[in-house]
Amino acid sequence: MDGFTWVRSSKGKLKDMFKSISDVQERFKGKGYLCNRQVATVIYLATRMKKPILVEGPPGVGKTELGKTLAEVLGIELIRLQCYEGLDEAKALYEWKYAKQLLYTQILKDKIGNILNQSATLQEAVDQISEEEDVFFSERFLEPRPLLKAILADEPTVLLIDEVDRSDPEFEAFLLEVLSDFQVSIPELGTLRAKHIPLVILTSNNSREMTDALKRRCLHLYIHFPEKEEELRMLQMRIPDLSETLARQIVEVVYRLRKMDLKKSPSISETLDWAKSLIVLNAEKLDQTTLDSTLNLILKYERDIEKVRNHLPQIIKEMG
Known about the structure:
CATH topology of the largest domain: Rossmann fold
Oligomer: single chain
Number of helices: 15
CATH architecture of the largest domain: 3-Layer(aba) Sandwich
CATH superfamily of the largest domain: P-loop containing nucleotide triphosphate hydrolases
Mean pLDDT: 84
Number of strands: 11
Low-confidence stretches: 1-15
């Protein structure tokens, strides 16, 4: 048994991660995440083959939520690394607790005097003082960042490397090395190897093309916005108080908005928030007034809002 195929439940007993593709779908559904068979297949294979998953797709389709739900379904820790331009290996791996080292320095200064007084020769004093130097760079002064935290974890984890396309190519190359061996070298401590190989989910919004080397290392998954019926089921599952009529109108409007040339299409989470707000407003159906007054809940740019406002009569008419 290894940390990838098996996990510990909250009661400490070992249980099989996923029994089948259908098991993946059922357990994700139990956490409010509807995944189709293609998504479930990739997740199932990744757990069996010990392969990272590179999840690509437009913003707002649930890529990050996939990693969060996977950790929740399995009852294991989620460790998230948010990527950004300028991120380097030091920021992703570890940093030293300099304040704690400084405090230790003050303590050591007092001890040096005692060592000098008790040493018969200068060489003996130097040898004893040099023994204390290693303490400065021991694990007690090490602050693990997400990558190292996942490698050092005592239990299996889900490592979510979010928006990897925002990082620089140099960091992507470093990341590839880590994902290949699941070990890192720290000059002061040596090579640290993973106690449990984490389940790795990398997400990308396609702001730049990922290298072939990274794609070869991962199972690839592209998530599109859901079809209308699929999003309808999602709405009804997540917001059971929503009437079927209003739910269908919401899905129809969102579907049409995503077909328009907007700077940012409504995400799934924004659709859910919009639906919840319509319940708070006691809306029974979508009319032009209600739609116009709540556009800012699903569209985040004024240019997009104005463009949609110009098409509201047509949208309402076609919605029936």
